[in-house]
Amino acid sequence: MPFKFCVCWANENWTRHWDGGEKELLVAQDYSETTLRAIAADVHRYSTDSRYIRVNGRPMVLVYRPLLLPDPVAASELFRRAFKEQGIHLVYVESMEAVNRGVRPQDIGFDASVEFPPHGIAVPRTDHVTALKEGWEGYRYDYKSTVVEAVMRQCAPYKRYPGAFATWDNTPRQPLKGTSFDDVTPEVFQLYLEEKLEEARCFLPNDERFLFINAWNEWAEGAHLEPDQRYGHRWLEAVRGALLSKGCL
């Protein structure tokens, strides 16, 4: 079976802290018209692949941080001109400065948004937290409470694709100031997926029932579905279990 895919432009600075910020730049993001045209041309080339994901015949293209664009509307119009023959389905990611801002896709020239948990939904632990490393000043959140927050959040008044995350721990990148989630299990993750699949079924048309998962193998942020030493294949089994329970397989 062909492995379908689409492209998400991670439009942010490349830094030593892997945070897309302004400090210790390795490669700065450029938003010149020349750059935008080159990116649009590259994505257009990829979209001609028969496996590329389409919505009503239009290739789906995601932008990670749309509000960093100096003029998001102008950028979206440039992309639409590059895809004028087949059209384009532009989706922005609800991350960083865009999360919980209530930005309607149509206000910035886009067609839809997609959730990017745990951004915007993380629930801090309320009990006493024991530091596991001297000098640690990071953040620890409760996974089960965060899942409840995620499935109970109000539906957006625009087209938004649901997302879910298996787990998160970016202490490999920020050893003393990282963010992690406690009480994470594949079983809770499966329940999370089942609720989000139901959300997609209730609020999206048949050909747009997408569910995005963070992530396949983002090991430096502890977000992965690939087998690990602790849970083996159970993350993947949770995905299969959720799909089976909702009649998707």
What does this structure look like?
With 249 residues, this protein is α/β, with parallel strands linked by helices. It folds into two domains: 114 residues; 133 residues, no CATH class. It is built from five helices and 14 strands. The strands form five sheets. Strands 1, 4, 5, 6, 7 and 9 form a six-stranded mixed beta sheet that branches. Helix 1 packs across helix 2, helix 3 runs parallel beside helix 4 and helix 4 packs parallel to helix 5. The longest helix is centred in the C-terminal third of the chain and has 18 residues. The two termini are 14 Å apart.
Could you list some keywords that capture this structure?
6-stranded mixed sheet, 2 domains, 249 residues, globular, alpha/beta, single chain
The assigned structural class equals alpha/beta
Please describe the biggest sheet, giving its number of strands, its sense, and whether it closes into a barrel. Answer: 6 strands, mixed
Q: Specify the number of helices.
A: 5
The multimeric state of the shown protein is single chain
Query: Which whole number gives the mean pLDDT?
Result: 92
Write the layout of secondary structure elements.
Blueprint: E1 7-9, E2 14-15, E3 25-27, H1 33-47, E4 54-55, E5 58-63, H2 72-82, E6 89-94, E7 112-115, E8 139-142, H3 143-152, E9 160-161, E10 163-165, E11 179-182, H4 186-203, E12 212-214, E13 217-218, E14 223-224, H5 234-245
Parallel strand pairs: 1-5, 5-6, 6-7, 7-9, 8-11, 10-12
Antiparallel strand pairs: 2-3, 4-5, 13-14
Helix pairs in contact: 1-2, 3-4, 4-5
